[in-house]
Specification:
By secondary structure, the chain is mainly alpha-helical. Helices cover about 45% and strands about 5% of the residues.
Length: about 475
Amino acid sequence: MSMRPVILWYRDDLRLADHAPLRAAAASGAPVIPLFILDEATPGQWRPGGASRWWLHHSLAALAADLGAIGGRLVIRRGDSLEIIAAMAREQGAQALYFHRHHGPAETVLEDRLWRDLGGSLEMRRFPGRLLHEPEQVRNASGEPFRVFTPFWKACLRLPEPEAPAPAPPRLSPPPPQVTGLALDSLQLLPQAPDWASGLRETWRPGEASAQARLETFLEEALKVYSEGRDQPGRPGTSRISPHLRFGEISPRQIWHAVRGVQGTFAATTRGGDAFLRELGWRDFCHHLLLHWPQLPEQPFNPRFADFPWRNDANAFAAWTRGQTGYPLVDAGMRELWHTGWMHNRARMVVASFLVKHLLVHWRQGQDWFWDTLVDADLANNAGGWQWVAGCGADAAPYFRIFNPVLQGQKFDSRGDYARRWLPELRRLPDKDIHAPFAAGTATLAAAGVRLGVDYPEPLVEHGFARRRALEALASRRGP
């Protein structure tokens, strides 16, 4: 008599290694149905943006090939997750459903519904694994969730280290032959005409193998300069592993233990490793916030900003999205984003600050643009990051901290490598003028072949004026 199958539900965990639900399913000896559902029907779900859909297509293709190599077969469906899982369990006589826990508001509700509706007929096993530490493990002295990152991270460091990652199972029993799914292309995740994804194809190779290769390159080449290099967008000083982490092609535990394994080689590696692991801690913090404050992507964490006088300036917002603000560091970041689906973290902070403080455009408009254009768009990190910059989030940067985009460029891109990479129209400007072409002399501009207002725009707004306006807007909403 054949064993009843186990449904292995894949979501944002598209890998084989360090995948507890997969290992448990393989160890059961039963046929395994690896199931991915493109769910755009469950209430509250955030439909993936265009760049995320491009990545998801290629990540699923890589996962299907990797599963095939160990005897499995990925089954793809589309629709309401609860309805599809319930129907498959009923039709195939499944004995169990295994999956990783998620912490988003819609996912939490969905998992509770699954437990309520199917828990009586299926063995349900929900595994941790998307974060370093589950939210229940990290609480303040009063037993409440943290609202400030530094004490949160100190509390994390006092906990036992995350478990060591486990390898992928060597073999997987395939699903019953009658279990069929959709062809990947039928999901239509790739852009239709016009094809805007050429830069993404040039830049990225989604999949678990590429995630591991990128981590190894980072550990060998960039970790030792990470403490300084992570703030310099013109240098290869960051890991660029965020989209792989967002789609679960690599787990945070794998990254943690890989970094810990090379720390101590020399002092710079120790410093860089600590700084890098702190970024994993910020990711955990954002997911903890989203779990405890599910309205985070929609409402300001600080209620004092609920009636902030944002400006609805469609022209300014459009110029920002196109990298046409007249401030080179801002424009370089926005053009890097459009071409590659990614942006250096220092540039992310500067472009976000410019939108919400120089232009007074609502942080949700920036959040939504990033959601559509970033290959690493993550609901918790995106909302947490934008609210942090806007000054209305948990542990937020003070609203009066307004980045000067010229000084930021001069400090972190002093030779103009980043600006010239993404703004070729300015490549002939001297280093001292590259981040403030509007302040360069007429002769300098002429020698560089730059006509302000023609080849490159005049600034949308003067920094001093914008800073005063932003502070006045804040003062108008101060509490008693």
